[in-house]
């Protein structure tokens, strides 16, 4: 049973819609185990954005990998969040996780996930990775395997450069993003129960 009040915010940027598909899959995963999930686009840093993040029990960070790191829009958000950081670590003890998408299989996506994890640590948050063995990594494996890009730090997706967001990233990567949403919601539920018992 999931904790009904586990609130998962997905704070993301997507320049051309591909990473937004991943964000929607993370949200669907969280919803599937009874949490609430809210998509928070970071293009405009309104009061509503900050209020939603303040109210969340978990924040999942997501951005496309641009030039080997999270997109500039995400980095602007990260810098603006220093106000929350300065207010006695306003996101302390929230659960954190991350996802990223890019056109190359690697594309240096790991660097974006590391960036998210460091960012979360600076905020005193608790990082949750993927608990899935790497797929598509032996001779009988399939591209349809969960975690086909083999990341533990967070969910990765790959979008062919000539495909629109209607067609990329592929369903296999969206299933992996969904699994991250399930895991974050489940861990957040446990975290909330532990806080109630303490
Ligand atoms: C400015 C820019 C930089 C990019 N840098 C990378 C990169 O470092 N590695 C990579 O694999 N793809 C790179 N890409 C491709 C994007 O990550 C890819 O098109 C992704 O699907 C875009 O996601 P979005 O539609 O959510 O913006 C770059 C694209 C742009 C526009």
Automatic annotation (TrEMBL):
Ranges for domain Flavodoxin-like: 8-185
GO molecular function: FMN binding; NAD(P)H dehydrogenase (quinone) activity
Gene3D superfamilies the record matches: 3.40.50.360
UniProt GO cellular component terms: membrane
InterPro entries: Flavodoxin/NO_synth (IPR008254), Flavoprotein-like_sf (IPR029039), FMN_Rdtase-like_dom (IPR005025)
SUPFAM superfamilies recorded: Flavoproteins
Pfam families reported for this sequence: FMN_red
Name of the molecule in the record: Flavodoxin family protein
Organism: Kribbella antibiotica
């Amino acid at each position: 049973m999931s904790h009904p009040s586990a609130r998962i915010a997905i704070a993301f940027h997507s320049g051309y819609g591909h990473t937004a598909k991943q964000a929607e899959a993370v949200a669907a995963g969280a919803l599937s185990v009874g949490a609430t999930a809210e998509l928070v686009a970071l293009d405009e840093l309104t009061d509503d954005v900050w209020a939603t993040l303040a109210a969340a029990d978990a924040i999942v960070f997501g951005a496309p990998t641009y030039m080997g790191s999270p997109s500039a829009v995400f980095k602007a958000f990260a810098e603006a969040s220093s106000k929350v950081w300065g207010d006695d670590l306003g996101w302390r003890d929230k659960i954190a996780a991350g996802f990223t998408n890019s056109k190359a299989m690697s594309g240096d996506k790991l660097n974006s996930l590391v960036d998210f994890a460091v960012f979360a640590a600076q905020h005193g948050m608790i990082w949750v990775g993927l608990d899935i063995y790497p797929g598509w990594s032996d001779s009988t494996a399939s591209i349809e395997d969960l975690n086909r890009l083999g990341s533990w730090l967070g969910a990765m997706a790959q979008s062919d450069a000539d495909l629109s967001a209607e067609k990329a990233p592929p369903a296999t990567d969206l299933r992996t993003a969904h699994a991250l949403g399930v895991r974050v919601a489940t861990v957040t539920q446990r975290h909330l129960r532990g806080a109630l018992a303490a």
